[in-house]
Amino acid sequence: MEICVIGAGYVGLTSAVVFARLGHKVTCVDKDSEKIKKLNEGSITIFEPGLEKLLVGFNRNISFSEDIEDAIGRAETILIAVGTPQLPDGEADLQFVNEVILTIANTIYSHKTIITKSTVPIGTNDKLVEILLELEVKRSRFHIVSNPEFLREGSAVKDMLHPDKIVVGLEDHDQQSLIKLKQLYYGINAPFVVTSLKGAEMIKYASNSFLATKISFMNEMARICDVFNVDIMDVAKGIGSDPRIGSEFLQAGIGYGGSCFPKDLQSLIYTSKKQEILPKLLMATEEINQTQVDVYMDKLKSYIPNLTDKKITVLGLSFKPNTDDIRSSPAIRLIHKLVAHNAKVHVYDPKAKYETTNVIQFHHVNDALNDTDCIIVATDWDEFLYLDWNDIKRRVNENIVLDTRNFLNRNKVEKHGFTYVGLGRSR
Ligand code: UGA
């Protein structure tokens, strides 16, 4: 199948490479000429395990271009994978999706199956149908399909090759497009969940909202565990063995970040409020997440009441491990608070970079740890599990370790004389 993927971000690029691997002929387009140049040279513009290897291996099936009209003209299937960033009031910005649909309207001379992969508010795909008709595109020339993506950064390739489901939202039970989608995903072993356009949009938002709520729930439980001297890790294990609850996404910590959960929650809150529904649970989920950094700041201040000129080392910048993405990262929020308290902040991250005043970033973890008054682990990179605490002990001023991810081996840390501080960890 000849496919045009519009947008070479996380979702677009991974989809393009995976569909090339499935044997389709893919053109991936993006407005960013630098990105396109690099991709044509075979190098990946994002840090995503396994993606570059797959791109190089299947490069005969994939090309990258800036010429969107040409790519649309040749393809029978078009995948929209452009960003839908958040506007200041929480609404999703559909500017890029709308631009793409205008270009498609001006370029359409044969039948196209237009697949929306971008996360878009409920009702957007129905609107796209209306826009195309208003622009006098013949009804026989297109079908719109909503096919949201559930991949995670850091395991994008694996998630796309082995999804737990493929959600397909159709216009009026359009069976022709369903067959197309089955051809597109041929080779991937996952059940299809078939619904309406709006149904698919809602599934995407409900999925991210539920996962985010699970995290905030555990963060609230951890706050309670903290005062009762109960270990939240035991609670996670205890409740997670119940299949109705499930063991994943029960890790309490500094809160969720990234380009999806915060944005999608805000967008669903905005959409609901616009329909005069007050989504109290979603709002509470967001509020717990926003204030989680303060919980850690309070903990820190209980050990170091005055942070002025204290050297604090933050290990980890990215919103989670195995990515260099710092969008809405709680580590960055924490750093801002530390700077606001006049601390001298030293940071180290295996992949991510962040430049700002009053923060020094080091290339080697040991350099970041020299003479520090407190070590804060802000991202659960595996590398931090293997720190040499014996060596670190000789480098630091004070032996305090604030583990905002509850993931270090506490016994190991304490054995070397450090004071281990987690959230909801019993003494
Ligand atoms: C998330 C969803 O998991 C994907 O299914 C979805 O496709 C994607 O958003 C999207 O909408 O594009 P992602 O943002 O890559 O994927 O990251 P996750 O692995 O879900 O982690 C999100 C945040 O939650 C991270 O900051 C992570 O540290 C945090 N988290 C996760 C916890 O604090 N506790 C947990 O138990 C799990």
TrEMBL record:
Q: What phylogenetic lineage does the species belong to?
A: Bacteria, Bacillati, Bacillota, Bacilli, Bacillales
Q: Does the keyword Oxidoreductase apply?
A: yes
Which UniProt keyword terms apply here?
NAD, Oxidoreductase
The catalytic activity of this protein is classed by the Enzyme Commission as: 1.1.1.22
Task: Return the protein name.
Answer: UDP-glucose 6-dehydrogenase
Q: Which Gene3D superfamilies match?
A: Cytochrome c1, transmembrane anchor, C-terminal, NAD(P)-binding Rossmann-like Domain
Catalytic positions?
A: C260
Please give the InterPro entries that the UniProt record associates with this protein: 6-PGluconate_DH-like_C_sf, NAD(P)-bd_dom_sf, UDP-Glc/GDP-Man, UDP-Glc/GDP-Man_DH_C, UDP-Glc/GDP-Man_DH_C_sf, UDP-Glc/GDP-Man_DH_dimer, UDP-Glc/GDP-Man_DH_N, UDPglc_DH_bac
State where substrate binds: F150, L151, R152, E153, K204, F249, L250, Q251, A252, G253, G257, K320
